[in-house]
Amino acid sequence: MNLANKLNKILAGDLQAAARLMRGIDDEVPDAIELLESIYLHTGRAYIVGVTGAPGAGKSTLLGSLIPVFRREKMKVGVVAIDPTSPFSGGAILGDRVRMQSQGVDKDIFIRSLASRGWKGGLSRATLNTIHVMDAMGKDIIFVESVGSGQGDIDIARVADTAIVVLTPGMGDEIQIMKAGILEVADIFVINKTDRDGAETLRNGLEGMLEMKTYLPDEWRPGIILTEAISGKGIEELAREVLRHREFLISGTEMEKRRKERARLELMMAIESSLLTYVERIDRDYLDKLVDDLALRKTNPRSAALKVINPSTKQL
Hints:
The protein is of the alpha/beta class. Helices cover about 50% and strands about 15% of the residues.
């Protein structure tokens, strides 16, 4: 099948074609990367919602309850669930996200798990690329669930239009809020598992921290939503808050700013990936010679690196 036919299948929302492409992207198959480059021009319409929080906060269960609310609004939904990497296979430990598979019978819901593979920020290298595939398929809203590592809580905001931070009573989240700078990241706070003791204490502490920051009249103030994902309590309110934040972004210039920041992130990731690929193709003997020179203090790391990046500087 030629490139045009593959592209048309993706744009038509073909689930099997999309799944094959996503696997290829995650494994960095050249044909998949070529198709991805064509797909990019057909993206930019989906709304991206990042969901992060500590492991055990109930993020997957929360999404499992939230998805049907948006489906009732006739919105096509995508989910990119980023799992820690198995140390044995390099694949996602939770596979295709068993905890959300009850949603899988709906052809307008597409759930894809990605392995983090140790990528900094708790975000998979293929996260943005997978988002683009779902976007091109015609998904209206795409949820990105991060691993929940400390830096991932911060970096999720660079990927998402709306960033949701999920907290849970009794898990030390009060300390986490103060340490990780989450106040600067979250557009919406969710206190999940509110049947546990300490939910109101956590909410009051969070409100107190928000009160310490001055918000301008045209600036978004993060909402705090209390939920019990299993029972569905607070889920409708959370969905409304997501849509309210979307309207806020669209009504001003913030949406454009966020998407430009995401474009900048993608550019830097592409540059980094290209440089790594280039370095991997460098003659091993030449690299070994640079290593020897470094060990003997005949050069310095920066000068050696510049010789690798810019071959015209080779003077051995």
